[in-house]
Amino acid sequence: MSEKILITGATGTIGKAVVKHLKAKNASFLIASRNPEEAAEKFGSDINVVKFEFEDISTFENAVDGVSKVFLLGPPLRYDLADVLMPFLDFLKAKNILEVVYISALGAEKMGDTLTFHTIIEEKLKADGFDYTILKPSFFSQNFKNYEWENITQRGITYVTAGEGKVGFIDVDDIGLVASTVLTSTGHSKKIYELTGPELLSYQDAATLLSEVTGKQIVYPNPSIEEYTKALKAAGAPDFIAPYMTSVYSLISDHKVNFLTNNVETITGKKPSLLRDVLIADFK
Ligand SMILES: NC(=O)c1ccc[n+]([C@@H]2O[C@H](COP(=O)([O-])OP(=O)(O)OC[C@H]3O[C@@H](n4cnc5c(N)ncnc54)[C@H](OP(=O)(O)O)[C@@H]3O)[C@@H](O)[C@H]2O)c1
Description:
Strand content: 5-15%
Order of helices and strands: EHEHEHEHEHEHEHEEHHHHH
CATH architecture of the domain at 4-139 and 170-195 and 258-272: 3-Layer(aba) Sandwich
Number of helices: 12
CATH topology of the domain at 4-139 and 170-195 and 258-272: Rossmann fold
Strand order of the largest sheet: 3-2-1-4-5-6-8
Largest sheet: 7 strands, parallel
Bound molecules: NADP nicotinamide-adenine-dinucleotide phosphate
CATH class of the domain at 4-139 and 170-195 and 258-272: Alpha Beta
Helix content: 40-55%
CATH superfamily of the domain at 4-139 and 170-195 and 258-272: NAD(P)-binding Rossmann-like Domain
Mean pLDDT: 97
Radius of gyration: 19 Å
């Protein structure tokens, strides 16, 4: 049986790390993108790229040709993510492609009624007889670069509604290493792995690290939800972003993700990276 793996979300933050580590392991895989030409340019000619879009079922058949496993990653900032991913999961089930490694999120099951999509997908993987592995990473260390670059470099702030809660920020390279290991080894069937970095830190701690690394004073104003919502509106963000992000950050402010796991090291043999080291790579 072929061991070819389809990597969805391959051009994104986690996906690029998964591709890097699968390549290092000499695994057989192909990557999915809505813009295959652009992706092929980015990754080079030694990586196979296929056109794929969750909302376009006509792209599914070609994408899974010869594939026996799927790395499944849903795009961020989509309240409708469960609806977006369902048709592809139904298609995989019908094709009897049951080995799926899914990226959920740490604390997804503690979100209450607001952001339920990861839990709905996890439940579907279980109920429909998939041979799943669910990875539940903590907040990414790279969020500071990817989502807060201007706040940090131009305004001297890191601006989220995380209160005084703590979280084990994780390096996406470690998520990629875990995913590539799970995809290329046995013993991970029907497992759920919560993935964190090595230390619990608050946003105040992160601001102190950012100040050290950038050599400028970076402040965490610890805004209220009202202040944050107002600031995003003034900056022209679409209306749905503030409630989405405040729900996500309530996991930290409500102390629902203030724990560490040793799954990165147990699965990969590598100690997870410190936030400080990621910030040095991203901001120095
Ligand atoms: N940020 C965090 O702290 C955090 C923590 C835990 C879990 N997560 C979860 O991680 C996921 C996001 O991962 P990420 O940050 O790596 O995402 P990302 O960098 O935004 O990349 C998203 C990827 O999805 C692909 N994509 C977007 N829309 C698509 C569509 N309609 N059909 C097919 N592919 C599509 C894009 O590829 P193309 O443009 O090439 O098609 C891109 O490669 C979310 O599910 C989020 O809940 C995030």
